[in-house]
Design goal:
Blueprint (H helix, E strand, L loop, with lengths): L1 H13 L11 E4 L4 H5 L7 H8 L4 E2 L6 E9 L5 E11 L2 E8 L8
Antiparallel strand pairs: 1-3, 2-3, 3-4, 4-5
Amino acid sequence: MQKLTALILTLVLSGCAFPGVYKINVQQGNIVTDEELTKLNEGMPRSQVQALLGSPLMLNPIDESREYYVYTFQRRGGDIEEQRIIVHYNNDRYSHYEAQLLEETPAY
């Protein structure tokens, strides 16, 4: 009886790692496209930039001259793909951005 219980417990607990178990796609953060970035104009107020790109994922409380837009995507438990955009401001006005974009935004 103990061997049967141990076998059943082993099968139940290993079910989470059993091959063929469905894994979902996981996406987090801001989806920002190249098209949206081209609409940014130097001197735009921060509120207008946020209306275009959405709320930034991270704010730096020490240096308010930057906002961080990060998007990560993991396809069915595989490698995590990451897109990073740093928007720079000068006196609360948009000055430029640095971007490390994905070739393709695999949303949904």
